[in-house]
Design goal:
Elements (H helix, E strand, L loop, with lengths): L1 H21 L9 E4 L30 H6 L5 H8 L2 E6 L3 E6 L4 E11 L12 E3 L9 E6 L2 E4 L6 E6 L5 E9 L2 E10 L4 E9 L6 E5 L11 H6 L2 E6 L5 E4 L8 E14 L3 E6 L7 E8 L10 E8 L5 E9 L2 H7 L14 H22 L3 H43 L4 H14 L6 H10 L1 H14 L22 H17 L8 H18 L4 H31 L9 H7 L1
Length: about 575
């Protein structure tokens, strides 16, 4: 029993420590127009090698100022007049505000109305709203890949028309011409969804042409822990008929180029809590390819990358849906197309952790809506409920230990009776088990219920890594349960209660093996060290679990004490050969 418990504990600590290394902690409104001159960006671009077998992949995601746009159209008087008064059109919905520029026909600002920046702490009353787009960059940008050439439209001024869709929602249409190709980009804004339906038609483009859509070079950070946010920067994609994958910015060396062949259902750029995704419509033409290129490093940090998507340009053009918003669980699930997998849980343990994470998230969201409590109290109640649900199984496991405790004297006597005859010794041991209705596997089956809460613990461990529902949620002295406890109160309390549970659980034993004594001290210290800088909500849940376990441990300790008093000391058995010698 002791060896099995020790092995289970060592494996548990190993998994937690491994995940710690893999995921290290870090320190509808009407459309209105405004006319303004776009600022000039400070553009930096990493040089990348050319590939003669593929169309040129330009850096489509950098902003372009009006002056550079005017230089490219020196012979076009109409276009020069349009650049002279570069237009920014603002479209407001109940959940977000979009700023669209006619230069490149691209969104250059997306403000999320229901999310505040946490740069100055979660309780800052004057905090600005979250901005998805980084300064001097665009959300997406466009080019047309024709056989042997690439026609860029990121620096071209478009004529903008404000329309109204069939559903009464605002629609913006942009039109421009370059090198004989007339490109029309249409944006239809969907209220209450962070979603925009985009369609593109390229008249004059030859056969086998592609629309190239540039993804953001990164997502603007609105977190107090900017470094941790930047470590989550990645491009994600979903091949048809296969699971989702991601490419972290840190996994791309500067200038390194990767190609992910289609068909692709969606592609996305994301950080810890927010995401910009391009999704093919249900039944629509999939993306043909995703190209990613490593960007320049900021010291040791990878904060920039280039991502470009290729879409076939059919007779009716190309269509996709643009999502720029939070990685909210239910919102991503509602979008379908397995877009929820853009925020996977579990890393390389995803196959094991994801099912439990899905269950845990659904339960927590349901409790939050039903009880109308903050997530801090939801975690407290959830911890108590899990312990109560596990009470019968834990009771069975502890009772199995007590039965084994009663059995130990007879098992020891059976071992001493035939010290040099393993076969007879094994037969005698099996006879003792049979008389008491047990087997050698009774110990293992009794230990398993104590390990059942671990999948929930692992699921919560990963859920707290990047689940936006916990972002900025205060609880008692904590400003944000998704961040570590700044005073380390909860980790220390968690360690103390872990020790207390072990200490009470060993009361009533006549003799405590040295191995169990070591575990009683090592486990609390190890868990405290591992969870010290983890999300305070995770420490809160585990502390509540420990406190809720104390009554059951106390009752079992009392029962163990009674059993110990009734259990006779092991009999001193004289082997048969020694008996003959004495005779």
């Amino acid at each position: 029993m002791d060896k099995r418990i020790f092995l289970a504990v060592v494996l548990t600590i190993g998994v937690i420590a491994l995940t710690q290394l893999i995921f290290p902690p870090a320190q509808t409104t009407p459309v209105t127009d405004s006319v303004m001159v776009m600022p000039s960006p400070a553009a930096t671009q990493e040089a990348v090698p050319d590939d003669p077998l593929r169309p040129e992949i330009p850096d489509l995601s950098s902003g372009v100022d009006a002056a550079s746009a005017q230089d490219t159209i020196a012979g076009d008087t109409t276009a020069q007049q349009a650049v002279a008064r570069a237009q920014t059109t603002t479209v407001s919905t109940p959940v977000s505000t979009w700023e669209m520029t006619n230069v490149g026909a691209a969104p250059v600002g997306v403000q999320l109305e229901t999310f505040r920046s946490l740069r100055n702490g979660a309780r800052d009353p004057d905090a600005e709203r979250v901005q998805i787009v980084r300064p001097d960059e665009s959300l997406v940008s466009y080019a047309v890949a024709v056989p042997g050439d690439t026609v860029r439209f990121a620096d071209v001024p478009f004529r903008v028309s404000e329309l109204t869709g069939d559903d009464g929602q605002p629609v913006l249409e942009y039109r421009a011409a370059r090198e004989g190709i007339q490109l029309a980009i249409r944006y239809a804004f969907v209220p209450d969804s962070y979603l925009v339906r985009v369609s593109a038609v390229a008249d004059g483009a030859p056969a086998r042409s592609f629309l190239m859509v540039g993804l953001p070079r990164g997502i603007n950070s609105a977190e107090s822990d900017t470094l941790d946010d930047q470590q989550h920067l990645a491009y994600a994609y979903k091949p048809r008929g296969d699971g989702a994958s991601s490419i972290g910015f840190g996994k791309l060396d500067p200038g390194e180029r990767r190609f992910e062949n289609g068909p692709l259902t969606w592609v996305a750029a994301k950080n810890k809590y927010f995401i910009v995704g391009l999704l093919t419509p249900e039944g629509g033409e999939p993306f043909a390819e995703l190209t990613t290129i490593g960007g320049p490093r900021t010291g040791e940090r990878a904060t920039n990358a280039i991502g470009t998507v290729l879409m076939p340009l059919a007779d009716n053009g190309a269509r996709f849906e643009l999502y720029a918003g939070p990685q909210e669980w239910r919102r991503l699930v509602a979008l379908g197309r397995d877009f929820k997998d853009s925020n996977p849980y579990g890393g390389f343990l995803q196959g094991l952790v994801q099912p439990f994470a899905t269950i845990v998230m659904n339960v927590l969201l349901w409790m939050r809506e039903t009880l109308a409590l903050s997530y801090g109290w939801v975690l407290v109640i959830f911890g108590v409920i899990v312990r109560l649900v596990m009470w019968p199984l834990n009771q069975k496991a502890m009772r199995a230990q007590l039965r084994m405790q009663r059995l130990q004297p007879e098992l020891q006597a059976a071992q001493k009776r035939f010290p040099k005859d393993p076969q007879k010794q094994q037969q005698e041991i099996m006879r003792v088990y049979k008389e008491h209705g047990m087997s050698p596997f009774s110990t293992l089956s009794g230990c398993l219920p104590m390990l059942l809460p671990m999948p929930i613990f692992f699921a919560l461990f990963f859920v707290f890594q990047n689940t936006i529902e916990f972002r900025g949620v205060p609880f008692l002295w904590l400003e944000d349960i998704s961040l570590k406890d700044p005073y380390y109160i909860l980790p220390l309390l968690m360690g103390a209660t872990t020790f207390l549970v072990s200490w009470i659980g060993m009361r009533g034993q006549k003799e405590i093996p040295q191995q169990q004594k070591m575990i009683m001290y090592v486990i609390p210290v190890t868990f405290t060290f591992v969870l010290l800088n983890m999300a305070s909500g995770l420490n809160l849940y585990y502390t509540v679990q420990n406190i809720a376990a104390l009554p059951q441990q106390w009752l079992i300790a009392k029962e163990r004490k009674r059993v110990s008093a009734q259990t006779p000391a092991p009999a001193v058995v004289t082997p048969p050969k020694q008996q003959k010698k004495r005779a």
